[in-house]
Specification:
two-stranded antiparallel sheet; 14 helices; three-stranded antiparallel beta sheet; hpI Integrase, Chain A; mainly alpha; globular
């Protein structure tokens, strides 16, 4: 053991394992354990580790050699060359910041070990002066948008047609095309994120006694909602609102699902019984949109955007109802997803003005 200032320093590594590479790997192992203790998911931890390794490869420096200039050069490259989105840059900066927080925490003693072995200590390289700020609530690309109702119908029609085209050609993949068409319709019909719809199971549907017309598909239990930081996936119940949607699910379970994995509980599995990969859905989605020649701005998440917008604009649902359906904690978040048309705005204005006029007339008639 070494001593400094009368205090015993507990070295995390064996004395014979003091190579730079070994110290770096031990840092990552300790950081992984700390994040697991903080309830971060394995996927989040793996993503953060990949970023740290990429940062080391890009700079050619180990963490105890990092400088603020390294961070500035790396993110300048990511923005100008890789063209990362604003939110992604901010997330990457957060990942590096929490890694540096871990290394510079005296409780873990990495500063002492690195100073003794390498003559330098880790420092915080993401500060208030070089960190991207979160300036506004809505940072999605301006081109991102929902479907119009005409576009959405055309998209669903093409997805159905693809099944017939595959069957007519004699190629394999008709069941997969049928599955993906049902996934797209389900994502729209219940306003689901990609991760939510790909993790659905047959047991997630149940009856809604106040809406018996939907049969066994009146309520959908979403169990893989977007998680808060350090928390498990958020659960929510989504009420069925479209009269056609139960028929879509029932037909898939009866005629499509048995061809893929009749013994598993996944609603949209692959032939191996695993949830269909989101990357597969994105590729097929893009193929359909490109074939239809739709203007830019549509992605898989546009199905959820369309659900929210259409519930407001075409069906007149209450804002609070829609907010609960899609699992937003704040009403302002739901508002960011809405993209109402000028016709809808005009009709809403006319409705309010008519109510005001009716109240004024009624008040005048009540005067003596």
């Amino acid at each position: 053991m070494d001593h400094s200032g009368g205090r015993v320093i507990r070295l995390p590594l064996r004395q014979e394992a003091f190579s730079a590479d070994a110290v770096f790997e031990e840092m990552l192992t300790g950081w992984k354990q700390q994040q697991l203790a903080r309830n971060f998911t394995a996927e989040t931890i793996r993503g953060r580790e990949r970023l740290v390794r990429r940062f080391v490869d890009h700079t050619g420096h180990f963490p105890w050699e990092w400088t603020i200039g390294d961070a500035d050069e790396f993110f300048a490259h990511e923005r100008s060359i890789v063209n990362l989105a604003y939110a992604t840059v901010r997330a990457y900066q957060t990942h590096l910041k929490v890694f540096c927080d871990f290394l510079t925490d005296p409780g873990y003693e990495w500063d002492q070990l690195c100073q003794q072995r390498f003559g330098r200590s880790p420092a915080q390289i993401i500060t208030e002066f070089n960190r991207a700020r979160h300036a506004q609530n809505n940072e999605q690309a301006p081109a991102k948008r929902p479907f119009t109702r005409v576009e959405l119908q055309g998209f669903f029609d093409l997805a159905d047609l693809e099944v017939e085209r595959v069957l007519a050609s004699g190629r394999k993949g008709a069941v997969a095309a049928y599955r993906d068409a049902t996934v797209f319709k389900t994502a729209y019909a219940w306003g689901l994120r990609a991760n939510e719809v790909t993790h659905l199971q047959t047991v997630d549907f149940s009856r809604n006694r106040r809406a018996p017309q939907f049969g066994e598909f009146g309520v959908l239990q979403v169990r893989y909602g977007k998680a808060q930081r350090g928390s498990p996936p958020k659960r929510r119940s989504v009420l069925t609102v479209f009269d056609w949607s139960p028929d879509v699910i029932e037909a898939w379970i009866r005629t499509g699902l048995p061809w893929l994995a009749p013994t598993v509980s996944e609603l949209f599995p692959t032939a191996n019984g695993l949830p269909v990969p989101k990357s597969n859905l994105r590729r097929r989605f893009r193929d359909y949109v490109d074939e239809l020649g739709y203007p830019p701005g549509l992605d898989l998440h546009s199905l959820r955007r369309s659900y929210i917008t259409h519930l407001f604009e075409h069906f007149g649902f209450d804002h609070t109802f829609v907010q609960r359906q899609v699992g937003h904690e704040h009403a302002s978040t739901t508002s960011l997803y809405t993209a109402v048309s000028s016709d809808y705005q005009t009709s809403e204005l006319n409705r309010v003005l008519e109510n005001m006029i009716d109240k004024a007339i009624a008040a005048k008639e009540q005067r003596p």
